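To: structure subgroup
Subject: Chain for Friday's discussion

All,

I'm putting the inputs and outputs inline so they're searchable in the archive.
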Amino acid sequence: MPTNLREFCTTGLCIPSKNYMVDTTPKIDSIIELIEKGKYFTINRARQYGKTTTLHLLELALPKIGYECARISFEGIDDEVFDSPEAFCPSLLNQIATVLERKSISNAEVWRNDSVVSFQLLANHIALMCQNKQVVLMIDEVDKTSNNFIFLKFLGMLRESYLRRYDVPTFQSVILAGVYDIKNLKIKIAKEGQYTLEGGENRINSPWNIAANFNIDMSFSAPEIATMLNEYEGDHHTGMNIKEISEEIYYYTSGYPFLVSDICKIIDEELEKDWSLDGVQKAIKKIMNTPGMPLFDDMAHKINDNKELYDFLYDTIVEGKIGTYNPMSYAISLGLMFGILSRKDNFVFVGNKIFEIILCDYFIIEKQRVAKEKITEVLSNIVEDKKFNMELCLKKFGQHYYELYNAKNAKFLEDECRILFLTYLRPLINGWGFYHIESETRDSERMDIVVDYAPEQFILELKIWRGDSAHKKAYEQLGKYLDSKGKDTGYLLTFDFRRSGTARRTSTRKKSAKWIKWQGKKIFDVMV
């Protein structure tokens, strides 16, 4: 196939001859090491994270080093197959035989055996088929039926065969792929209560405890993204700065495979190959404004179905609370499993900036507080000729903050002040720009916000007044952050809650808006 007909793929399986792909050879080699050691494991990652493509690449690589590879899927299998061992066992063998026949494996048809109607007979038949062979079984979309008792019985059979593998032949390796970690089925089952054991006891433990941990990072680093862009540039000769573009894509996606490919696909097919930093941001805007995006719809369902996860994300994104990893936390376990959260050392944070933007918008819409007429009133002045006036935006916010929220008590305002500003900001930039909150600097006292609007970028810091010395420290913090972004102009919005419902407090609260100079930086300092 001519290379100039290749395209970026965001749906289903990526094929090297047809699609531009990140070079994941080191990841595939690491997985093969697990297989060569005879490990059984689960590749559990979030939706659209490259699981199926990874299995396909393994399927291509393993025969070259002497393995027979049977890759099957539980997607679309009739529910009746999981009604009983009599239905499940012959169906499984039939699937294995079919995929091996397609590869012209000799004697593949002998895998079929309709008389195998129990899990003991299934184990015996597998032992016969694996004599003097190294067979790898891969099952994709395995959690489509992971709350099914027959499936657990199948896992139990695999476990028993694994424990006896030095005496009785069995699969060299078994790889299960899905969103849920089959080793931790208790998370799903304990919440959903889908089946019980004899006597009515809820079963919450998976027999898949013999599986090795799968710790291979399947996200794409900036250098890995560059390998895909190098292939593309070799075909199209756009003159892009590959290092700069790959780093920008990584900055917003943290290497989430679908988001990486979708940005590239949009630039290639919808933005006239605008391989610039501005083109990356335009692609991100398109992604966030696409209705019915399955990835985001699925994320919304997960959040709405799990209040603990909703509250954890709200506290992390809006309240600035630092998420500390706790393996016993149901919310954290779900967030990590679904790819919404990521973990670094002992801290947990939102997986990427695009997710942060989407989630922050979601919380704002859910808690819409700013009167629409106020937004309409100021929009024409703040946005002129498609340029955003951040100075005027902050001044107007100061005015409307007093008009709309002066009657609220201090505790409410201190808890909600940041989302009040974001609620105000969002409709002003909607359509032409977007913002994200910097997870690296967020805490309960400080929030850094980066606003991208057309070609301009604005750096804001939101603070709560804690005294003059803390305010000077805010200048220093903002100055350092501006340096890291290569900017010399920033904006500081401080919420001052003195004299808010406490008679003993006599300090005078003053609202102000002024430009100051701080160590070579220009800072627009606003107090509300």
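Points worth raising on Friday:
The longest helix spans residues 410-429.
The first strand starts at residue 41 and ends at 44.

D.
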